Amino acid sequence: MNAVMHGLRKGTNASGMRRYNERLILSAVRRLNGASKADLSRVTGLSPQAVVRIVDELADGGTLIQSGKRTGGMGQPAIIYRINGKRGYTVGLEVGRGGLTIALLDFDGERQAVHRPDGAFPSITRVIDEVNGFLHEHLATKSLLNSDTFLGVGIAMPWFIGEWREELGISVDQASEWRGTDVAHRLSDGIAWPTHFENDGNAATLAQLLCGAGINLQDFLSVNLGTFIGGGLVLSGRVVQGRHGNAGALASMPVPTAGHEDYLIHHASLYSLPADPKEQDLAAWIERCADALGFAVIGANSLLDLEAVVIDGAAPQPVIDGVAAALERRLSRNVPPDFFAPAVRTGRLGSAAAAVGAGLLPLHASFSPDLSALFKPAASG
Q1: Does some domain include residue 209?
Q2: What share of the chain is helix, strand, coil (3-state, %, to 5)?
Q3: Is 368 exposed, middle or buried (0-12, 13-18, 19+ CB in 10 A)?
Q4: Structural domain that includes position 251
Q5: Are 117 and 152 part of one and the same domain?
Q6: 73 and 113 fall within a common domain
Q7: Mean pLDDT in consecutive groups of 10 residues from the start of the chain, 381 residues
Q8: Sorted alphabetically, which CDD domains does this protein's record hold (predicted)?
Q9: Residue 21, in any domain of the structure
Q10: Is 9 part of any domain?
Q11: Disulfide: which of 190, 197, 245, 325 matches 1 by Cβ 3.0-4.6 Å?
């Protein structure tokens, strides 16, 4: 599967540059959750004249709408612009080892509906049937399933979804179906709309970056507590994919254990937590998870000097909060003397994080530039 989040390069002609700058403005408005023209000039580095022209064109076309005014300071009140959510829709799908999550997003990235079908580790045929049924229920019956309104389907899934079979308790046949080289083609062929694929960890990280706990961060490690622990990496305001689209794949991070080397997947994944754990068992799991995660975070942060670690996932919010608090305690002791501990934040996207990120993929592919271009000093001219 080809990764789709490398960003868009600046155009080499006037038309390409104008399109790039439009996408830059839209990305900035989305991350800032509404912005004035002065705000947009400041964070994008575009000249005030260029911003005025682009914002007015986007507003005239209905992509941006005025959402209020900001008073204070000298001069006239500043008009705040937001993205017009009704301009279009996308669907995000997470194909997870624990089941499916499907989310309908509007053009502003807001969730309009979320569906989690019953059952775990679905077949490819079932995935296609569930997505098409969701599209019919939420879009076709409202006459919104057309090329002017619907932008496509984003699909997030682990690159190695058929691996770790023993931990999942699935059959050889179930695992083999997802190991084939034709998985992306089968999914695309079964869905009659543009499809965009991404690793589930990267998709969840994109969701945190654009509409979650990382919205005002430039450099952070995203931790997603799911059936298996996953993650992603943001540097300079951009989701980093790596050569194979697998950067930030925390599950395979080595951690020390008594007498042998082990991996983070065995210490910080929900599959190892009983469905209804006793209080003492849950507390022990949280400490074990945080201790192993702390080892991984110290290594990553020593290499990358991160602003923060964002923890979210399918676990109940008290468990997410408990892991975050335990990780903070872990990072306050037994660390190198030259270690700058990153902040620890908790997200609120929950089990929908990867599906929301998947739903953002069509928006990102069509309307967003490389996000590292954001938050640069304003340029003249």
Answers
A1: no
A2: 45, 20, 35
A3: buried
A4: 214-348
A5: yes
A6: no
A7: 33 65 85 90 91 94 89 78 90 86 92 88 87 94 85 85 57 68 86 90 92 91 91 90 84 84 90 86 94 93 95 93 96 83 95 94 66 44 36
A8: ASKHA_ATPase_ROK
A9: yes
A10: no
A11: 197
Q: How far apart are CA 283 and CA 290, in angstroms?
A: 11
Which of 35, 51, 85 terminates a domain? The answer is 85
Which residue, 71, 98, 94, 66, is CA-closest to 81? 66
Predicted local distance difference test score (pLDDT) of residue 165: 53
CA angle 54, 57, 61 (to 5 degrees): 140
Query: CA 91 from chain center: how many Å?
Result: 14
Could you list the beta-strand ranges (E) of the chain: 64-70, 78-83, 89-96, 99-106, 111-115, 150-157, 195-199, 220-225, 230-235, 238-240, 254-257, 260-263, 308-313, 343-346
- pTM over the 0.85 mark: no
DSSP SS3 for 99: strand
Question: Apex CA 96: angle with CA 91 and CA 97, to 5°?
Answer: 165
Instruction: Quote the number of domains for the chain.
Output: 3
Domain match, 194 and 97 both: yes
Please name the residues in contact with 155: beta carbons below 8 A apart, sequence gap of 6 or more: 93, 95, 187, 195, 196, 197, 198, 358
Q: Specify the 3-state DSSP secondary structure of 318.
A: helix
How many whole angstroms separate alpha carbon 128 and alpha carbon 30? 30
Residues 313 and 295 in one domain: yes
- Closest C-alpha to 185, from 155, 164, 212, 209: 155
| Residues in the chain, overall count | 381
The CATH number of the domain holding residue 50 is: 1.10.10.10
| Token pair for 356 | 């929301």
Residue 148 located in a structural domain = yes
Tell me, what CATH number does 189's domain have?
3.30.420.40
User: In sequence order, which residues have a C-beta less than 8 Å from that of residue 133 and are 6 or more positions away?
Assistant: none
User: Can you tell me the distance from the alpha carbon of 76 to that of 120, in angstroms, rounded to the nearest whole number?
Assistant: 57
Question: Residue 65 corresponds to which amino acid?
Answer: I
